[in-house]
Amino acid sequence: MTQMKHMTWYEFNERKDKDVVILPVGSVEQHGPHLPLFTDTIISEGFAELLAQEVNGIVMPAINYGYKSQPASGGGPLFPGTIDLNGVTLIALVQDILEELIRDGVKQIAVVNSHFENQAFLLEAIDLVSRHMPEGTKIVMMSWWDLITQETIDKVFDEVPFPGWALEHAAITETSLILKFAPETVHMDRLIEEKIEEVPTYQVYPIPKDLVPASGLLSIGRTSSQEKGELIIAEALKGMVSIVNKEFKN
Amino acid sequence: MTQMKHMTWYEFNERKDKDVVILPVGSVEQHGPHLPLFTDTIISEGFAELLAQEVNGIVMPAINYGYKSQPASGGGPLFPGTIDLNGVTLIALVQDILEELIRDGVKQIAVVNSHFENQAFLLEAIDLVSRHMPEGTKIVMMSWWDLITQETIDKVFDEVPFPGWALEHAAITETSLILKFAPETVHMDRLIEEKIEEVPTYQVYPIPKDLVPASGLLSIGRTSSQEKGELIIAEALKGMVSIVNKEFKN
Amino acid sequence: MTQMKHMTWYEFNERKDKDVVILPVGSVEQHGPHLPLFTDTIISEGFAELLAQEVNGIVMPAINYGYKSQPASGGGPLFPGTIDLNGVTLIALVQDILEELIRDGVKQIAVVNSHFENQAFLLEAIDLVSRHMPEGTKIVMMSWWDLITQETIDKVFDEVPFPGWALEHAAITETSLILKFAPETVHMDRLIEEKIEEVPTYQVYPIPKDLVPASGLLSIGRTSSQEKGELIIAEALKGMVSIVNKEFKN
Amino acid sequence: MTQMKHMTWYEFNERKDKDVVILPVGSVEQHGPHLPLFTDTIISEGFAELLAQEVNGIVMPAINYGYKSQPASGGGPLFPGTIDLNGVTLIALVQDILEELIRDGVKQIAVVNSHFENQAFLLEAIDLVSRHMPEGTKIVMMSWWDLITQETIDKVFDEVPFPGWALEHAAITETSLILKFAPETVHMDRLIEEKIEEVPTYQVYPIPKDLVPASGLLSIGRTSSQEKGELIIAEALKGMVSIVNKEFKN
Amino acid sequence: MTQMKHMTWYEFNERKDKDVVILPVGSVEQHGPHLPLFTDTIISEGFAELLAQEVNGIVMPAINYGYKSQPASGGGPLFPGTIDLNGVTLIALVQDILEELIRDGVKQIAVVNSHFENQAFLLEAIDLVSRHMPEGTKIVMMSWWDLITQETIDKVFDEVPFPGWALEHAAITETSLILKFAPETVHMDRLIEEKIEEVPTYQVYPIPKDLVPASGLLSIGRTSSQEKGELIIAEALKGMVSIVNKEFKN
Amino acid sequence: MTQMKHMTWYEFNERKDKDVVILPVGSVEQHGPHLPLFTDTIISEGFAELLAQEVNGIVMPAINYGYKSQPASGGGPLFPGTIDLNGVTLIALVQDILEELIRDGVKQIAVVNSHFENQAFLLEAIDLVSRHMPEGTKIVMMSWWDLITQETIDKVFDEVPFPGWALEHAAITETSLILKFAPETVHMDRLIEEKIEEVPTYQVYPIPKDLVPASGLLSIGRTSSQEKGELIIAEALKGMVSIVNKEFKN
């Protein structure tokens, strides 16, 4: 079994000090007219489950809510349905969960993130926890996009140019991933050809309403496909497995 | 559609100021040898979904982690797999989510809780938020056990005596509810006849290891059944629908 | 001597690692037209003093202010004169005091509470402190109502039916206790026959003004008497003494 | 009636927007071999009661615990029986209480302090509260020593030279005040002739154990008397009354 | 005059609601064997001063300490001399300063950052402040590297390939900038040819000691020159001026 | 070299466990019509540099912003240009910096303060840090005014009477110090003869606008001179050197 949520405590107890415990972290954030608000969490949970199957890991219930969406990587906080946590809250939340795992005797923790804006706050939480961890405990954090090679980028962006990872929001990679992980939630017919025209080179508050397209799309999503989703998943998963093996299995 | 997680932001946007938004809150907590760690969250999500169907509501992604399990209502924090948040963290988490909803223009919020120990901290969060809510916004919090009549209690506890709600942990009501909401996660064959023998009349720290049975069972779970689950669900749901109608529909 | 407030530090110093240190926790909260705002603190201080006499304990200065009054257990925060602390403040306050005691070398701490709403926050503070306590240190928390047997309840509620502990606010038990602990502050002539008519089965914010009677009385106080106060005190005190003896004296 | 603790909420309610509400703030701190740990709170409560009688004020239950004792003004934190709050805790505690008063409609608040080290943290709390106070609300903070004239100092320090207010700890002024406010708690026979020999001109941590005399006495207490207590009380009280009249009565 | 630190309050007062107030934010962080620990702050202060001259702005005293150095963008926290703030501290610090400016009536605030790791926490602070800003107040945040065009990158990286901004730590751009801003603090003779060999594609805690070169250099610094510094400054400054003009001058 | 900001990490690393590390703490605060807003920080940095030269110390980058100016010691928060931190922020800031030093292996830390209002909050931070410091680590805090003898006071206040240290704000001592440390920032021609007429004997909020002179001057600055600056510096520096030698060099 991979899902902690369906385990009894007896089942968790038997495996807790031997197996990698995987914490998926997502967000509730606008992803344009065609993708669900839970896109990031679906992706994190999807990768976590696949990784657990490969490395005999345990998938924890996800952190469903994430840090504040930024205009140039998620459309920003002004879209209804984007439900953001303050930085200090996310730090405390992750800290508490990791500390509980460690108190339970867990030694191998892998955080799987797929919401760009979470990164700094997840690392802050992990850093604070790591200062008091017992010897031998390790925490890794992985984001799928960091594991994609240029070769795969070239294949995925065969027609549309690659806009960089931050701007790849609700665009080809995420659409392709959801087409694979939760196809029933994608509305390809609603996808429109819109993208951020002028990527801001600075930040301004109050955030202007017209900084990003009204649809919330930052980059072109055309040419998304389940096949591309498979390609990305295969490579990112391979990377994750090899990280887990390298860090935890020797 | 009831699940916010599967909505696009367009879909949420259209309904956000008309419909009740329902936030299920659970926990990751030992529930004996036969029930899953996610028992409370499964129940909260189950009720939230049913309620949403009845009142045309929107179910938010759950708060998956809850406040610290207490010995006399959840077995306490010493069971591996029980992953608890500190009080201040849960308060901040709920506060942030509610404030984001309100900033989005949501006016009707229903918090559905099924983890006993969450109550004080959820109310603290709601209280803090309510001090700055715009006129016309309302938040209700409901726990299913508060909506069960003596009549139903008598039916459910036909053989085993009712031990009180706090002690009804991993026992007849929760087992029956999970038999209905997620039967594939229940292991009736592993259920044993164990209960807390001497209910403590005070609290002591460090929490003694032998305060509760080694299984984590606080009360007798025998006689649990899907039928009893249906009975409880029917009555609690009726109560929830009537609360929502009373508070939000006039 | 029992009262730490009247001790010199020399006197405290000599007893600090041998004797039980008792921390009374109360509140400043409406208690109807006939009881003083300090009802809870008076009761906690009263029990603490009696307990100290029995077990050779030291009574600390009380925590005079408590957590937020709730409508269905204290009338709620809308009554002028109810002065409530935020949850995080009460947690920090209790944490600091307990940690100071422990730094001083105190090994045996008993928290005596008589404000229903304090419970979750007191336990959170104690839990946080207990994670770093030196071996051999113990903290117990006691609330007088948890120590009353059904037999005594039957005697006290000889005419008026027992409404449950949460609703026993400014009613027979508290009135009887104050008639014993601080009779000069009770105005029996102002006591009126009022009670909450429909006990709410859920919480709603903003808290409706008409949820509880205008007097702040939640249950019937008629038949209160000093004799009943004595009865309750005798039994609760016996319980407290036996807890202290069990936890600290072996 | 002056004591809020003995008022019913009806009584408080009638006076809350007309009368000055007085909050005494003290500490639990070593005061040498002859004075009680509660010396500061006794003094604050004593002044608060007298002031209330003069200006028809309402005395709140005291803040019993204060900020950390410093070596050169209270002996420091190493004396058993000195129970100190962290700075952030005291700030939050005072903030909560003041905000509750203001929510209740109180317009005139006087904080009466007698623990030297509390000052900065009390002012921080008041400052934070004052940023959001309704127009017309005022908070004053008074410490008795700020109201003593040179003439009175000369009278009180007729034999022993005045060491400055910070060092006047457990010495002539405080002993004289307690001889007046709570004479039964003073042990003049235990008073010894000891004082800090070299007043430190800087702070060092860890705090050296030999920085202050082993008795905790910082200055000479000889020549303390009830008459001197009366003298100090008379003058400080006159000052407090005139402050209240000036700030609140026009 | 540009430097607030040298202004009297009269001078600041006259300009506070007309002129842009510029807040430089830096860090104290290892920058290899040849650059000073204050590299980032020197750069921020340098840009702030030049910008102020161009737009008649006021430069505030810098925030001297920044967020935690990360291995792949600053070498990480293990280098002595790297003095990092926790995330919550930096957020609070920036929040307080911005709120004070706004209370003083300042309407135009430009934050100039040059420490990569600060970004998320600065934006969190600005976001929190912006929720309560008076209408008409604006805050921009600028990092010099976001304003450099590909053309300039090509010129600066004429021999050594551009490793991306995160890895450009203590390398060509920062060395060139310090050669211009504070040449006396650069030790070109100590610069060695070292760089991170395998850029990590994930994060792991505890941070391994051998993740980055022992020198703290992440990329090649050879070919740094004052001329390149001038080139970068000219372009970034032009960008900053145009941002300020666009956001504040219409 | 004395300035950490200009050191490479190699240079800091070699000296970090042998030499005293000096942290100057200042403020951004009104100092009348003739002194710069950075007066306190200039003084702290000035003393820190001189002290470092004497004891082979290392001067850290200053804490540029300080705690809230008070009317009777700094004019209060109402003067534009006075940029104050909240108490909790300053505590956290100092705590983080000290803890980082200690993690780096620094054993000898001297905090040099020159902003009156900082004192309580600096000590709170140091106290919190000191509870977990490794054996052998020491932190001292020094404020220059505590090191001035009566003899020097008599010389400096040859014409104008000494008003006490709290009121010596933007007056003779600070003006004389800046005339020595940063003469180019002093405008003696703008100095006017103004002082607080009635020193308040209590605090009141909201802070009245007319509590202090409109210029922000609390005491007479006439007769300030570079010579007096030299006198004060010589004596305070001697005191600091002797403290450092006493605490760290045996």
Automatic annotation (TrEMBL), chains A, B, C, D, E, F:
Annotated EC: 3.5.2.10
Keyword DNA damage: no
Species of origin: Holtiella tumoricola
Broadest EC class assigned to this enzyme: hydrolase
Family, as annotated: Belongs to the creatininase superfamily.
MF-aspect GO terms: creatininase activity; hydrolase activity, acting on carbon-nitrogen (but not peptide) bonds, in linear amides; metal ion binding
Name listed for the protein in its UniProt record: Creatininase
NCBIfam families registered for this protein in UniProt: creatininase
Record's keyword annotation contains Hydrolase: yes
GO BP term (any one): creatine biosynthetic process
Keywords associated with the record: Hydrolase, Metal-binding, Zinc
Pfam families: Creatininase
Domain of life: Bacteria
InterPro entries hit by this protein: Creatininase, Creatininase-like_sf, Creatininase/forma_Hydrolase
Cofactor(s) in the UniProt record: Zn(2+)
